[in-house]
Amino acid sequence: MQDESDDALMRRAGSGDKAAFAVLVRRHLARATAVAQRIVANRSDAEEIVQETFLRCWQKAPEWLPANDRDAGDAAGRAQIGTWLYRVLVNLCLDRRRRPRPVEIEAAAEVADDRANGFDVRAASETSRRVAAAMAALPDRQRAALALCYFEGLGNIEAAAALEISVGALESLLVRGRRALKESLADLSPAGHIG
Predict the structure, then answer these.
(1) Domain-embedded: residue 107
(2) pLDDT digits (tens, 9 = 90+) for 151-167
(3) Is the CB of residue 50 less than 8 Å from the CB of residue 32?
(4) What average pLDDT score do residues 109-114 get?
(5) How confident is the model at residue 169 (pLDDT cuts 50, 70, 90)?
(6) Which among 11, 168, 160 has a CA at the least distance from the CA of 75?
(7) Same domain, 78 and 7
(8) How much is the pTM?
(9) Does residue 109 belong to any structural domain of this protein?
(10) Are 96 and 9 in a shared domain?
């Protein structure tokens, strides 16, 4: 079952095979969680969104058709499972970002790290925090494009499909997003230290 394609697993899940669906979830869970966390910048929100994404996948399974069996005029039906999952995931993330958010307990100051080489750990943490803050300040679509292409390594075609935009529009989002990040993080040295 581990070697089966996503389409085959989805067909089996559509007929009620929970083990096939579990393989499909394991195959996509880590990347989906990473994408969601980068877009919403909150681990618990990301986990909820991923859970909702896979719930929708389970609900869609009985209707899923293999890529070669789909009607050529049905654009939504032609998507690969991974692309369809990312489209659902990104839309749920963007919906979550638009909701007002209460201040969470996690916003309290962090406890200092006692591990060896604390300066480097702190510098890396500060750099990560600055990058995360700069990403969070970007418009939703730019943030999603950067998260999919640079943090998750999706190609432009797949990322554009997940965002339901053209490749040209995705490239424009990437250019504007990189420019904004470069301006926001201009005081970081090449080694990642604030200078």
Answers:
(1) no
(2) 888 899 999 998 999 99
(3) yes
(4) 61
(5) very high
(6) 160
(7) yes
(8) 0.61
(9) no
(10) yes
> What is the residue range of 28's domain?
1-100
Which domain-ending residue is among 34, 67, 100?
Answer: 100
In a domain, residue 78? The reply is yes
The pLDDT-based confidence of 194 (bands split at 50, 70, 90) is very low
For residues 140-147, average pLDDT: 91
Verify that 56 and 12 share a domain, yes or no. yes
- What CATH number is given to the structural domain containing 134? 1.10.10.10
**Model pLDDT for residues 54-103, shown as the tens digit of each residue:** 999 999 888 887 665 545 444 444 468 888 899 999 999 998 888 766 66
Regarding whether 94 and 147 lie in a shared domain, the answer is: no
- The token duo for 155 is 């190609």
Whether 83 and 9 map to the same domain: the answer is yes
